[in-house]
Amino acid sequence: MRKQDFHYELPPERIARHPIEPRSAARLLHLAADGNHHRAMLDFPALLAPGDLVVFNDTRVIKARLLGHKPTGGRAELLIERVLSGSEVLAQLGVSKKPKPGGHIRVADGSFVLLGREGDLFHFRWEGPGDVWSLMERAGQLPLPPYFEREPNAEDESRYQTLFAEKPGAVAAPTASLHFDETLLAALTERRVRTAKVTLHVGAGTFQPVRVDEIQQHQMHAERYEVTAATAAAIAETKAQGGQVVAVGTTVCRALESAARSGSLHPGGGETRLFITPGYRFAVVDRLLTNFHLPESTLLMLVSAFGGHARLMEAYRQAIAAEYRFFSYGDAMLIERDHGG
After folding, report:
1. Nearest Cα to Cα of residue 337 among 305, 291, 297
2. Same domain, 162 and 53
3. How far is CA 230 from the centre of its chain?
4. According to DSSP H, which parts of 99-181 are helical?
5. Does the residue 135 lie in any domain?
6. Which residues of the chain are modeled with pLDDT < 70?
7. Number of independent structural domains in the chain
8. Which ranges constitute the DSSP H helices of 191-260?
């Protein structure tokens, strides 16, 4: 398939640049076997059966955006993609002219020294007080998606984190989980729906465009994930009892499917470059709760693989006409898996 097969026109006013209150007040477009239904997130528990398993991502967004200067005084911006140790990181670098190895970027009360390149990322060593984690806490900013077109504020400090955010390492939120508050979680418990967690640290590559026309030529970015033995056991038990596994977000879907590349789900983790496109055969996930994604993005390709390409693109057209809110702070879709291929 080609990149333009995943294009759609989105009016700018449909982009949700601020969250709504409460978290669970979002709308929900339900792609069911009998057609599409306009619902609300508060309807989500009633759409599940007792014994189903809902899986969340427990990653936490770090303050990965650091502003600094080159020795010449020119402005520089680092986006920490991965912390390798207390002092070394891989980062994206925004400067007018890229430094050479040994070059310095001044940030807060210290400097990052460039050690080299790893693909599109820059390998830096932090030379300053404390480690990189403490630097980000005192001098970093939340790396809001570029389509917000604004700086982070106090509201984002809490609302761009999920209720499940435990393990720091993401540079973008697993946005489908942003809809869940105590009210919604209590309703799942009352419905006797079980929950579990995986970890996938969302990388900045999630916002990188697909630059090739033939999508299979796209090189997927790597992200770290972990599926615990407890979660793997809960999934096996759910399946054995006839329940369904509901992935909350494309990140959960990607983690679970990565852990099942051998044909069956195994606990463990590592790095995944799994690129899910139409034609992919899902091994674990039965239903997918997800937000609306950017045109021509790898995430839109994943949900098209899950729900069927024509069906998904038509649903997006319906959502735009019905004035749903799009992207990270936007509304949600619950997609029943397309078993037709």
Report:
1. 305
2. yes
3. 22
4. 132-139, 154-159
5. yes
6. 340-341
7. 2
8. 229-240, 250-258
